[in-house]
Amino acid sequence: MQAAPLTPQISLTQLTQGRNEFIQRYTVEGRTGFAPDIKLSWPTLKDAVENKGGIANIQEIVLRLIHRLVDGMWFLTMECCQLDMSNGKIVLYGNRFDLTNNGITPSSFKGDFDEVYFSNVLCEGKPINIQTFVHNITFPWYQQIAEMHCQNELPDNDDTIFIKFTSCSYDYSAHPDRSLVQWPHIVLFLMNATDHGDYVDDADYTNMFTNRAGDMGTLCPPRGGNYEWPATLPTVNICMQSPN
Prior knowledge:
Elements: E1 9-10, H1 12-25, E2 26-28, E3 38-41, H2 42-51, E4 61-70, E5 73-84, E6 89-100, E7 103-106, H3 115-120, E8 121-123, E9 126-127, E10 136-140, H4 141-151, E11 161-168, E12 186-193, E13 197-198, E14 213-215
Antiparallel strand pairs: 1-14, 2-8, 3-11, 4-5, 4-10, 5-6, 6-7, 8-9, 11-12, 12-13, 12-14
């Protein structure tokens, strides 16, 4: 089993390994193809988060992603929240949106986890323990997602620019200090463009998120309301402080 990288940025090799691991481990009704990548227009996602999410201070927005399952297919419910940067606590819960390949729509889902997902998704043939495994995943909008878009020097209001959410799995058992439980279903994100494809490779770059996917699996405790900021992720990013 592939050991999980302990960094917010993910290379192409690491991304490929995580995707393959997920396909080998996870099924719904014996099927492995229940969690295709979710591909969303960048301007649409940005508008939902910054203008419709209900959080005024953009630099303090964090997104909670909740695994969902309807008609045997996986998707995400995204909740916009405000994080107190001084103590890692979520202090305000804003609006929710469902993220699917059909786009972004306001969500009526109210729970912290989806019982249908936990009842039907099998990890290595066994049910996922709802009492033990992670219920949702939290990551910062401004310092990570918007920063990745900026570092890849992509236009802001171009519908041919996308963000993709993809399912991966890594082994966290070797790092009990970083996670109380194994993370059964990690979600990574990466930039994509119609005329370019995915912005992910294995070359070395000065900036953290240039041609990298982002790892949301290592960025918070598995349950609870506190967020543990990764040591390698700046709280103020150079790219977002400069004009594009």
